[in-house]
Every structure is written in C-alpha cells, then in structure tokens.
C-alpha cells in the first residue's frame, strides 16, 4: 500500500486545508493501482490464450489479438485490467508467454518455461549453461568450455562414433533423459584456432559442473 487515508483528526497533524483537499480527491493513479492489485488468477490455455478468474467473473484474454471477453473491453475496446494483468504476469515470469509451455528441468524437475513447439529435453536456469562458461567434468576433473546446450536427450544424441551418449559407460551415472551439452576441452584451446574449429565433445548435462576452481 502506497496510499494511506488522511486522518484529519490526527493529533500529530494540524488540520490544514491542503490535507483535507488531498483526502477529498485521491490521486487518479490509485484507481489503476487498485485494479492491478485486485485478486485475479491467470491460467494459460493450450491455444496461446489465458483464462483470468476474478471475483467479478471469468474472462479469456488473447494477448496476440489484444482482446478480452469482459464487458469493459467489449463496450469500450479498452485495454482492460485483465489484459494488463496477463501482460504483467508474463513479464514477471509467473505464467508462460504465448509461445511457451511449462516443462520440467531434466536435472531437478523444477517447472520451467520452454518453447511450446520444442518437445526436447530442457534445463532450468540453475542447471542450464551459457555458451562460453568454463565447466568441470565430474568424471575426469578436466575443464571444458561449453559451446552449445542442445535439446537432444542423451539417449537420442549421436556421437561421431555413431553411438548414443547414454551408451557410454562413463555416462552411466547421469540421466539418459538429460539434454546433451557440447563443449571443447580447455587444453585444446589455441589462440590461432577459432572455437568452432575445435573438436567438440558432448556430455549429459549433469556430468558437467559450473563450479570449477
Ligand atoms: Zn478484460
Ligand atoms: Zn534444474
């Protein structure tokens, strides 16, 4: 709450005229602020739209079309509070964007938003790697630089030897459903050789650890 009611009878505050004027006409902002803090539940639909549940009714919001099924929107064509709430919820990461769905991290199972049309294996922010990150191999202790995080499951990813990653004995302790992460060995780095020209190796995601010293 940013606005508190003015208490004209407050003993600490003399009843000045400007205080009473403020009490009669609250800032215009207060109305829209109240609208945005109003209790609404936003749920994504499978067709890119959202259901918004409020005390006053249940409406369907289409962000792509900028439309809502509420009377306010139908009558005035206004950008109603439901549309605004859905947009805010997407921005805040509370609900997936229209082109996303809720998936699970292959390492920890945490719900994470993934591209809707990508049925591959995904990682949460905590377990994902950015290309260029130096990581350690839990099996050998060697250091590598991540070049790509694929969405291919370890048991579907084919190595140069035409074997699946999950077939390798050294990967037995890691999930076959985890995405394959491609990396180059730090020891293979040469100032004159581009990263893309180096031999790339793939690992199930949790075999690599970002915490290297
Ligand atoms: Zn609406
Ligand atoms: Zn995770």
Automatic annotation (TrEMBL):
The keyword Nuclease does not apply. PROSITE patterns: ZF_SWIM (PS50966). Keywords: Metal-binding, Zinc, Zinc-finger. It holds the Pfam family SWIM. This is SWIM zinc finger family protein. It comes from the Archaea. Residues 15-36 have a biased composition (Basic and acidic residues). It comes from Halorubrum ejinorense.
């Amino acid at each position: 709450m940013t606005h508190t009611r003015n208490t004209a009878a407050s003993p600490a505050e003399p009843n000045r005229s400007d205080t009473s004027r403020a009490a009669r006409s609250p800032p215009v902002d207060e109305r829209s602020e109240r609208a945005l803090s109003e209790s609404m539940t936003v749920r994504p639909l499978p067709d890119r739209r959202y259901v918004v549940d409020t005390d006053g009714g249940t409406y369907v919001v289409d962000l792509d079309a900028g439309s809502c099924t509420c009377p306010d929107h139908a009558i005035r064509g206004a950008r109603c509070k439901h549309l605004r709430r859905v947009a805010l919820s997407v921005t805040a990461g509370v609900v997936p964007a229209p082109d996303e769905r809720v998936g699970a991290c292959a390492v920890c199972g945490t719900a994470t938003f993934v591209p809707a049309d990508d049925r591959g294996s995904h990682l949460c922010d905590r377990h994902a790697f950015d290309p260029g990150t130096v990581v350690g191999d839990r099996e050998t202790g060697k250091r590598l630089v991540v070049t790509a995080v694929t969405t291919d499951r370890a048991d579907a990813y084919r190595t140069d030897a035409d074997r699946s990653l999950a077939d390798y004995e050294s990967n037995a302790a890691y999930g076959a459903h985890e995405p394959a992460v491609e990396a180059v060995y730090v020891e293979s780095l040469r100032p004159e050789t581009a990263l893309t020209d180096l031999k790339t190796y793939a690992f199930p995601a949790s075999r690599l650890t970002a915490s290297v010293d």
